[in-house]
Amino acid sequence: MKVYISVDAEGVAGISDWEQCIAGGDDYPLGRDLMLGEVNAAIDGAVEAGAEQILVNDSHSLMRNLPPGELGGHASYLSGRFKPLYMMEGLDASYDVALFLGYHAAMPTPGVLSHTYNPRAIANVVLNGTVTGEAGINALVAQHHGVPVAVITGDQYVGPEAAPFCPGIDAIEVKKSVSRYAAEHLHPHIAQQRIREGVFRALSEPGAGPPVLHLPATLEVQLVSPDMAEQATWLRGVERVTSTTVRFEDDDPLRLYRTFMTLVFLTRSLVETR
Ligand SMILES: [Zn+2]
After folding, report:
1. What angle, rounded to 10 degrees, do the helices at 253-267 and 134-145 form?
2. 0.70 exceeded by the pTM?
3. What's the topology of domain 2-113+134-204?
């Protein structure tokens, strides 16, 4: 069994502030430790369920948050800050299953550290008429390769947000968000135990199927400013819907994801740093 892991940081138990998950932040070393603990718990569960090959794609910030030699299961590590498929780089049809670890809620959701790819540019994303966070957007790549997304970990919001896009996904709740900057966390050992057991269960008795979004799929993206929406229309096929919202559709889920990624990279140039 080949297992693909996309790991973010904001949904990890114990993390509730950017200082814990951005390099240079006061508490960044703590954040990376907590992140590593959850990745290794998932790896342990996967290995117990029969995983032979594991790829960990670091999907957070500069995307080199983990010490490669401390990853369990002799997992390979995909790291670095320019990856064309970003949070889903490295996935292909040879993988049996994908896991989304440490995921956070969508920008309009009151989950801790909620955002959708770029909190300073993207106010909301709607996929085929349903508000989506990063899991639903990333499911487009899983659909292209026909790989089920079996598990998502994070707060109480990430499971219900992913469910419409990832059939049969199991959500493992490791913290309860109280506000965008506060959460009640399980003790890291308990969070890790739940992840190990949950991943083992999900991989031993597979209940998840590959995403099957209706095609052509449509993304509606609300940007923070009208300038960003105007800029987004420079991309072929992207139409302005309101002053801040654009829409685009594609019958190829991978191409739709790539257009979204281009929009994310493009609108960075207009982010106000004040
Ligand atoms: Zn992140």
Report:
1. 140
2. yes
3. Rossmann fold (3.40.50)
